[in-house]
């Protein structure tokens, strides 16, 4: 029975986190990011302010939520599972393919987040930190698989291409310029054209 209790507890946590994210995005869309308070987000989700802070450090953190942080966690897990003999660039390409955004509900949340960043440029700092974490993770993986330090130009180039491809694709798609997945693929291929392991 302990396993069932743990599963119920974990499910409840996931549901609470999702409810807070949904409530925050709904309020940000209706009232604006700056005008929305943590108290209002908690009330909209039907939880206490104390509960909000169990899941998110600040209002800024709930803006990006699991849609970003969970993706980065999955990226690390799936890169670690790629065959050791595989070219690191091919490994990164394959995992990016696996993690492309395709779920309609998720895409709707991403569009809301991108629109909020356009309206509130101060939010871009947190977005850039997420991109930096993605770069750091990819550079560490490529460096390890190549026998190089993460700060060697090769791992850093592949990592920058991975981050930039997602960045370019998200902003282009949010602005109505093309399919998110297709732009991400094309951008990554263009940025890594001619890049080879030393």
Please count the helical segments.
9
Low-confidence sequence ranges: none
Q: Kindly report the oligomeric state of this protein.
A: single chain
The overall pLDDT average reads 89
The CA-CA distance between the termini, in Å, is: 53 Å
How does the overall form come out from the CA principal axes? globular
User: Radius of gyration, rounded?
Assistant: 19 Å
The tally of beta strands, per DSSP, is 0
Name the helicity range.
over 70%
Could you characterize the architecture of this molecule?
The chain has 198 residues and is mostly helical. Helix content is 77%, strand content 0%. It is built from 9 helices and no strands. Helix 1 packs across helix 4, helix 5 packs antiparallel against helix 9 and helix 8 packs antiparallel against helix 9. The protein is globular, with a radius of gyration of 19 Å. It starts with a helix and ends in a 6-residue tail after the last helix.
